[in-house]
Amino acid sequence: MAKYVPYQESYDNLLNCDKWAKRTMWISTGLAGILFGLEFVQTKPEWLEWLTKSVTILNCIAILAFAVLDIYIRITFQRVRYNKRLDLLDNSFGTTFLNENSEEYYSNNELNNSLYKLAVNCFESNFFTVKIAKKMKRELIIKLAAVCIVFIATAPLGDKWFVQFLQLSLPVLLATDYIKHHYFVEDTNRNLLEFQSLFTSIKGRYNSTDSYKDLHVEAQLCKLIVNYESSIAAAAILLDKKIYDDNNPQLTKEWNNMKVRYQIV
Known about the structure:
By secondary structure, this protein is mostly helical. The chain has one domain (about 10-260). About 75% of the residues lie in helices and about 0% in strands. The protein starts with 7 loop residues before the first helix and ends with a helix.
């Protein structure tokens, strides 16, 4: 979809951090599984006691690394989104808030610069976000279930309250992420339905070239734009790049069909 995006390097950095966060999570889960297996060993020689303690320490380090990466991603995400919002405004109004702008990221360049174009760009982003976020839920459920089973089973095995706390903190973090993702999908999907309803009501009588203006319609467009951007900022969710790449051609086709259906011109 996009040939050039000025903030792509920062976004790729976020994706790399997200990959490492997932790796540390699975490493921690594997180490917790090893600890669970070691508990069934009846006779523990000195070397096995040393191994158990070492694995426990490595597990705690992995959990802390995951937490640090998660916090870093949330903070950096807001900075990247700030640049993306400026790029959205530049594309919609022809402004120059950024030194460079994306090319062919939005598929609505035939529209005149206007609030209407801003709303259409946001409508397009909202559509892609909902479709991709929904497809991510299955992986999140599997990840949460696997981690919860292992860590809840192994948490009581720790002989220190701090170790038990750390082992239980990872499934709690993942459960929080899943709940956040669930409500993010709900919020953005509701906003998408409102976009569809509004563009149905203004179809054929409101576009980027007409002199016709309606303050009530413009207020509704602004509300939907703000709602979508607020949901993105609050959730700070990175959409899965592989799911995006795999589904982009089909979603682009669906979006182009929607533009025809709602007479977006």
